[in-house]
């Protein structure tokens, strides 16, 4: 097992104390102690770093953050029963995809959720996550036994550590591929999945996908017009943003869903 798996364990252990505070976690630069996704930030960011991060949540909606820029958020509504790419690293071959499904409740309310997150590693190992747990494919080999102290398992070039809730449902898994670390969470009540890039080191400037395209250096800028309005520029195109509550986030620079969909299609 690689020595860097100790870093994977550190990420997992750091969030054990907060596990009951929120179904999903917000994505913040690792120089800050993560707080719950529902919490107000406990720091004043100085935007002096260079890494970018991205998170995708159940229904689905996304938050992109950076050490050099304020975060921005947007909704994304795919058709049901399709796969879409969250991250594709053209240099390493790492790929992360999501599957969409229609969720119907009370016969009158329906919406589309991400019900599966799937990683394909540079060596072709496949690890997927749904509300039932973790599933491995792409090799006749099995994952290693859990490390007696860290709980980390190895499957080819993937290291991962998984946690379940008291009822045995998949709660969260930290995944390490190369130097990059990701977190996948399940929400049993909403039957949906979420994914976050929590350590982007090693992901190349060739990354694409709904999250991957924003991990490049200087992928976006946010120019605040006033306290409630801003201009978000992505790949030379500028769209309006408004600071307001976003799902369970207290406040975020929210860009229009249709404008964002058109922009993503052009990238």
TrEMBL record:
Residues 1-19 form the signal peptide. It comes from the Eukaryota. Keywords: Signal. Residues 22-41 are annotated as: Disordered. This is Uncharacterized protein. It comes from Oikopleura dioica.
């Amino acid at each position: 097992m690689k020595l860097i798996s100790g870093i994977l364990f550190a990420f997992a252990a750091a969030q054990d104390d907060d596990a009951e505070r929120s179904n999903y976690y917000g994505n913040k630069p690792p120089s800050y102690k993560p707080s719950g996704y529902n919490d107000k930030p406990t720091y004043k960011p100085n935007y002096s770093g260079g890494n970018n991060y991205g998170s995708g949540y159940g229904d689905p909606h996304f938050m992109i953050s950076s050490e050099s820029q304020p975060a921005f958020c947007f909704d994304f509504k795919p058709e049901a029963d399709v796969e879409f790419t969250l991250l594709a690293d053209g240099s390493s071959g790492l790929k992360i995809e999501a599957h969409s499904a229609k969720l119907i409740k009370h016969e009158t309310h329906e919406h589309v959720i991400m019900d599966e997150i799937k990683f394909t590693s540079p060596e072709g190992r496949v690890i997927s996550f749904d509300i039932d747990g973790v599933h491995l494919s792409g090799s006749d080999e099995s994952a290693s036994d859990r490390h007696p102290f860290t709980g980390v398992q190895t499957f080819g070039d993937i290291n991962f550590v998984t946690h379940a809730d008291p009822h045995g449902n998949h709660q969260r898994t930290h995944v390490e591929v190369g130097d990059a670390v990701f977190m996948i969470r399940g929400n049993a009540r909403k039957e949906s999945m979420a994914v976050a890039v929590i350590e982007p080191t090693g992901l190349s400037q060739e990354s694409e996908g709904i999250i991957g395209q924003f991990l490049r250096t200087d992928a976006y800028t946010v120019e605040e017009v006033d306290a409630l309005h801003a201009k978000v520029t992505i790949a030379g195109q500028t769209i309006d943003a408004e600071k307001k509550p976003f799902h369970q986030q207290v406040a975020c620079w929210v860009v229009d869903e249709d404008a964002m969909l058109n922009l993503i299609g052009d990238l």
